[in-house]
Design a protein that fits this description.
The chain is mainly β and about 170 residues long. Helix content is about 0%, strand content about 40%. It contains no helices and 14 strands. A 4-stranded mixed β-sheet has the order 4-10-9-6, with no helix packed on it. A 3-stranded antiparallel β-sheet has the order 2-1-14, with no helix packed on it.
């Protein structure tokens, strides 16, 4: 039996700061699921308007995409038909929001990290947003998880939670 899997990846630095991200990967028997073009962390100045055009990789045959926004800061919106995210920020900080889409071939989701201004608190390491490739039943699945620590060159360590039996992560 196969099903989609949501895996929690945690990254820690030598100072004890942590970052994390849920990565959803769809299980499939060969069907093609939509995937977002990965979005690297973004930074804007305080009061600056922010816009981001979400894009699907190889959008051939994925008609009727509808976009949704979750865990977004107050006032942030997404155009449900085009995937354009827009917002005018009013407070410094670090924000993590989730964009998902449904098409005629399936669904996809990705987290977006946004830094507003120069927050004075130390930044935790971040698992960089990445669209997980589908897991095909009966085939080995691999994905390179990438993280960065914006405040230092600390050695990073990784952990998985809620992963399916047999899934591991190397340091």
């Amino acid at each position: 039996q196969w099903h989609d899997q949501l895996v929690y990846v945690d990254v820690s630095d030598e100072e004890g700061l942590q970052g994390n991200q849920y990565i959803l990967f769809p299980a499939t028997q060969g069907n093609r699921f939509p995937q977002f073009v990965p979005v690297q962390p973004k930074q804007v100045s305080l009061g600056q308007s922010f816009s981001l055009q979400m894009q699907l990789e190889e959008n051939d045959g994925q008609y009727g995409a509808t976009y949704y926004l979750s865990n977004a800061p107050e006032g942030m919106v997404i155009d449900s038909q085009t995937g354009l995210v827009s917002w005018t920020n009013t407070e410094e900080g670090r924000y993590l929001f989730y964009v998902r889409t449904y098409t005629n071939t399936g669904y996809a989701g990705t987290y977006v990290h946004l830094i507003v201004g120069n927050p004075s608190t130390p930044a935790a390491p971040m698992v960089l947003p990445k669209t997980a490739p589908p897991a095909i039943v009966g085939q080995t699945w691999t994905m390179q998880v990438e993280a960065q620590d914006p405040d230092s060159q600390d050695l990073l360590s990784y952990e998985l939670y809620d992963q399916p039996a047999g899934m591991t992560i190397s340091q």
